[in-house]
Specification:
By secondary structure, the protein is an alpha/beta fold. The chain is 39% helix and 13% strand.
Length: 268
């Protein structure tokens, strides 16, 4: 088997946004929020289900996945491969917007349902563990009076467990997202039906040609985006080094501040 990169836009939405295999998303949500008993999600409706791309140069316009469970809870699941300026404000804006748009002006506030944001980040975002839960609470007591917004962050760089160290379905899901593209078989320790289906859907050999073309195109766009960020950082460092050099700042200070080598700075 050859598995796709789950972090790719097309792969992410094909696997988690499949209306015909909602067991995948249900299993993932239950695992991330570690729900048990009557609190477990049994069914969801996906607001923007995945549809097979038609054009070879298909561009993904939906960056996240929205779903609602049978209790009315709304879920936003988003994959982010690069940190951007103001990410914390962006997440709060999107979540609060989703919350407020449930009702029209004049309707009862009691009609509002909880909104849960699940962010999968391919970068460090918080000071917590690889899986963290953030909520509005009393800073001193931890009491939650305002309960309708929750944020779950999965930070992939912090997850370093090996296959034989995965002892719960939550870790197995995170391992799947981070490592599937590096595997050639479905791991033996996968008992969860939703996760099994996710591995099967991630198998490149089952994808259509147009899906594979869209997948490759999305990957190229992602690389272009990373390249633009790298170039912007490089230009900024060079400009800072140039200004410091012209101001007579010592070489070792400039090197420490910018990360540039002595040769690079002398060439400015």
């Amino acid at each position: 088997m050859q598995f796709v990169d789950i972090k790719n836009d097309i792969a992410f939405r094909k696997i988690f946004g499949n209306e015909k295999k909602k067991v995948i998303l249900i299993s993932f949500l239950n695992a991330v929020m570690q729900l048990e008993g009557d609190n477990r999600i049994s069914d969801v409706s996906i607001a923007n289900p995945y549809q097979s791309p038609i054009l070879p140069n298909f561009k993904a316009t939906i960056l996240d996945l929205r779903a609602k469970d049978s209790k009315g809870n709304i879920f936003i699941v988003e994959m982010q491969v690069a940190d951007v300026d103001g990410m914390d404000k962006r997440l709060l804006y999107y979540t609060s917007k989703e919350y407020s748009q449930q009702i029209e002006s004049g309707e009862k506030y009691t009609e509002l349902n909880p909104v849960i944001f699940i962010g999968i980040f391919d970068f460090d975002f918080s000071q917590g563990n690889y899986l963290s839960n953030h909520a509005i609470c009393n800073v001193k007591t931890g009491e939650r009076v305002i309960k309708d917004m929750d944020f779950y962050f999965i930070e992939l760089p912090k997850f370093n467990k090996k296959l034989n160290e995965l002892d719960n379905v939550t870790d197995k899901w995170i391992y799947f997202i981070k490592e599937a593209e590096n595997l050639d078989v479905i791991p033996d320790n996968i008992e969860d039906n939703g996760l099994k289906e996710a591995y099967l859907d991630a198998n490149k050999n089952t994808w259509s040609m147009e899906e594979l073309r869209a997948y490759d195109y999305a990957g190229m766009r992602e690389q272009d985006g990373r390249g633009m960020i790298t170039k912007a950082v490089r230009v900024a460092k060079t400009e800072i080094a140039k200004n410091l050099k012209e101001s007579g700042v010592e070489m070792n200070v400039i090197m420490q501040a910018t990360g540039l080598t002595e040769t690079e700075i002398n060439d400015l």
